Amino acid sequence: MSDARLSGRLSSHQPLVLGLFRIVLGLLFASEGAATLFGILGRESSPVGDWPFWYAGVIELVCGVLILLGVVTRGAAFLSSGAMAFAYFTEHQKDGLFPLQNGGLSPALFCWGFLLLVFFGPGALSLSALARRGGTAQDTARPPVAGRAL
Q1: Fewer CB within 10 Å: N-end or C-end of the chain?
Q2: CA neighbours within 13 Å on the CB side: how many for 13?
Q3: What is the spatial distance between Cα 110 and Cα 33, in angstroms, rounded to a whole number?
Q4: What is the per-residue pLDDT across 22-50, written as a single tens digit (0 to 9) for each?
């Protein structure tokens, strides 16, 4: 298969893959928040109002669910990206330069993943696209029309 043909085939699936990326990222982020707030998944809960961990848990849970569902995705992703940058620089950076040294791999990856969603939007399979189009879930998997945002 030629590079141009392969590129065309892969490009036609970008909205769906971006939507799946958003769903997985949102689910992982929401589970981090739930673990912090409710002490599940093998983690101790953070006391209510404990700075910054309890507040980070609220952001993770709420924004994670919004991102998972594809509702106000860009705003939730922007807040989440900033929260993860804050976490990285205040909690991890002091222990070493690189994320593998300082235990900050997860915040670094979340930060950049959410920044990607800020610029690329929710992709396919989002509730906001479904509501905007007034169609079915299948309708949201179609590639966007040229010049039209997702």
Answers
A1: N
A2: 7
A3: 13
A4: 999 999 999 999 999 999 999 999 999 99
> What's the angle, vertex CA 65, arms to CA 64 and CA 68, rounded to 5?
85
Structural contact between residues 122 and 150, judged by C-beta atoms closer than 8 angstroms = yes
Instruction: Give the Å distances, CA to CA, from 5 to 12, 20, 65.
Output: 11, 23, 36
CB atoms within 10 A of CB 146: 5
Two tokens, residue 128: 């906001």
From the list 127, 125, 119, the residue with the least C-alpha distance to 149 is 119
Q: Which of 118, 122, 55, 63 is nearest to 86 (CA)?
A: 55
pLDDT attached to residue 142: 47
3-state secondary structure 31-92: HHHHHHHHCCCCCCCCCCCCCCHHHHHHHHHHHHHHHHHCCCHHHHHHHHHHHHHHHHHHHH
